[in-house]
# Entry
Amino acid sequence: MSGAAAPEALAEPSEQVGRGWTAALSVANGAIWAGWYGPLQILLALQAAELAPPGTPKESVLAWVTGTGAVVSMVSGPLFGALSDRTASRFGRRTPWIVAGAAGGAGALVLLAGADTVPVMALGWCLVQLTLNAAFAALTAAVPDRVPHRQRGAVGGWLGAAQILGVLAGTGLATAAGGVAAGYLACAGFAVLGTLPYVLLHRDPVLPAGRRPALSLRALVAGFWISPRRHPDLGWAWLTRFLINLGNALALLYLLYYLRDVLHRPDPGGGVLVLTAVNGVTLLGTVVVGGFWSDRVGRRQPFVLWSGVIMTVATGLLAGWQTWEGALCAAALLGVGFGVFTSVDFALMTDVLPAAAHRGKDLGVINIANSLPQVAAPALAAPLVHHLGGYRTLYAVAAAVGLVGALLVRRIRGVP
# Structure
């Protein structure tokens, strides 16, 4: 029995996945992103402004809370990825962690809804990061588990579309719910409901207990390091993703405050929703097409490079054209660039994974390139805004960082 079941759980997939599987995984992915970005786009900023002690800037409270949560995210992604690699339940390796992570994330969002001090707010956000990262690590590992290389750009495109729809849904729920607490509760419900079709309708390959890697603290800790000397392509791909995401995080972190304090929008929360919608429309116009096109031509690098350049131009607009019209143009361009980047870079990352036996852990390490910018961005953004030139400097630095990341993709040798 073990020998018969092992190839499905551990071998490289060869059969293409169907539309139903892709759709269910994409909806679950969007639900997780809604649970993250309703708070990140709207709710945490409003809550920080309400709970900031006298004399403490709201920007500093927001930076401390999001930065602490991002540290938790960096650790939890690889940890839960490694645990899911070793899970030999009858429900499969990934499904138990998707269920537990979504349910735990909903509970943490409920805790945030009742937070009345900054420490409780920080605790709630750390728990959100811990639990939703457990679900996200398992969801992303399902792609190299089930999807052959020739289809990963397309699947990555649909996941990217679901990501931006999830961001838009989270932002919309946070804005329309009628208050901070109601916004958190709405995001919690959406995070749970969105994962149900995948976990109820699709079977996860079972890992036989006899093929489960040994579990020890030493092995878990050692697995967090993937040597860039032994795997240089993975190292360059990781650095490309980190820098482009850092530029994006710098651009988005204070967007609500930028609209309120620089552009003096009367409804900055509504402005964020409008910009997110514009960004979502242009992203949806490129994310699936970019993934399919990359699969068709069999190349990844040019798509990542030029999408990074487009995002650099967009962020530069926020530095040089500080008007509502400039923000709308920047949002549209960011969507074009980030759409292509989201689908193709995901496919690129799965193409450079070292081994099938620890896909979840390796993708968790790769996803540190998504969460580490959330730590670095607040540390960089606060002094840039308050002491080194304000929002023009912030967005100029963001553009430069993203451009360097885009150029470094040319260092990858094993994937064209």
